[in-house]
Structure formats: C-alpha cells, structure tokens
Design brief:
Layout lengths: L1 H32 L17 H23 L11 H23 L5 H8 L13 H24 L5 H17 L6 H8 L1 H17 L3 H11 L1
C-alpha cells in the first residue's frame, strides 16, 4: 500500500539521518576526549608559567570543535533541537566547562553564556536553532567550580599561595549567584548541591594557609600574580 511505502521511506531516511548525526557526534567526542594534553588535560599545566601558551593552544582546538559542531548542526532539523538534545547534552556541558576554564585561566572571570556560544560557534538564542541551552551552560559552570577546588589544592603544593585566595573569592561569588536561581531541574539541582562541598574544600585550603601564616604572603603577591 502507498501508506506503507511512505512509512518505509520515511523510516529509512530517519535511520540515514541519525547515522550521519551519530558519526558527527562521535567525531566531536573523540576530538574532545582522546587528544593527549589537549583541552581535557589543561589542569596538568594550570600552575606553571606556560598558562598563556596552553590557553592559546586550547583555543586552537576550539576551532576544530566549531567545525565539528557545524557538521552536527546539519544533521538535525533546526526546530527539533530538544528531540535530539540528549545525544549531545553531555558533550556540550563538557565544552562549556573547558571554555569556562580557559577564560578563567586567562582573566580569572566567569565566561558568559553568550561568550561560550561564540567560542563554540553556536547560537545563544534558542529561537535561532542549534543553541547553548541555559541548563547546559550552568552545568558546565558547576564543573568549573569543582575543577577550581582541585586547582586550589594543587596551587598550594606548587607554592602558589595567592591563587587559592582568589579562587575562594571567585567561587563564593559564583555560589551567591546560584543561590538567586530557582533550580527545578533535578540533575542540575544535584550538581548545584555539590557546589557547597567545593566551597568548603576551598575554605579549608585558605584556612590552612592562614594558620600556617602563608596568607600574608599571598595577600602581598596577589596583585603581581594576576
């Protein structure tokens, strides 16, 4: 019957489209997680003097990411973003974290959602198609907080006593911002609940510096370090 033929044709096209999408997504994931000492391993270099060079190299990798995201965008109808959102949600969240980490290392500021979207070559406005969902942005920022908590500890080990104080200020401001949000997403809410442990971990590092008398040295050197 004609209806059956149309259904089979539609199903076949859907399978082909999804195959192309999965190929594009797989390529994107591989570039993100398999390159040695690339974006996903930036933390190994954050307390060295080569931070600017590493950040520049990371931004070069984002050029590859933009190309792969551009390919991914062509595999899905623009008006069906959320139908397939789960396929790339985790990857985008990870990319947000990496972009936020690079920007923090460069300027010790929080990257905006619009800036991340520009770095990734996608839209910030959901009405314009393939975009950076606000919850994906927030999840990536929360991952940044966890990474900065580890960086605070590693900085002390490396003898950089000023950085934990600056990280503490940054994380406390971030926590204050999240407190203003009414988070209803269960997954995002759980991620946010973990922020208090990051705050506590950094506070313990700062307190340890204080009782060891190293915070005075940190305060003096904070301006030049930055």
């Amino acid at each position: 019957p004609l209806q059956h033929c149309l259904f089979v044709a539609l199903l076949s096209q859907t399978i082909l489209d999804n195959k192309g999408a999965y190929t594009a997504l797989s390529t994107l994931e591989n570039s993100l997680f398999t390159k040695p000492c690339s974006l996903s391993s930036m933390e190994c270099c954050t307390i060295s003097f080569s931070v600017p060079k590493k950040c520049q190299k990371a931004r070069e990798h984002f050029a590859t990411v933009r190309t792969q995201l551009e390919s991914l965008k062509t595999k899905f109808p623009a008006d069906q973003y959320y139908r397939f959102h789960e396929h790339w949600r985790f990857v985008l969240q990870r990319l947000v974290f990496l972009a936020a980490f690079v920007v923090y290392l460069e300027s010790e500021t929080l990257v905006t959602r619009e800036a991340v979207a520009e770095i990734l070559g996608i839209e910030a406005d959901r009405e314009r198609g393939f975009h950076l969902d606000i919850e994906d942005y927030l999840s990536g920022v929360l991952t940044l907080a966890s990474e900065l908590a580890r960086l605070a500890v590693n900085s002390v080990t490396a003898g950089d006593y000023s950085r934990p104080l600056r990280i503490s200020t940054f994380i406390n401001e971030l926590d204050s911002g999240f407190r203003l949000l009414n988070l209803k997403n269960d997954s995002l809410r759980k991620r946010y609940d973990g922020l208090k442990y990051d705050v506590k971990k950094i506070e313990e590092v700062v307190y340890d510096l204080s009782i060891r008398g190293l915070n005075k040295e940190s305060t003096v050197g904070a301006g030049g370090e930055k």
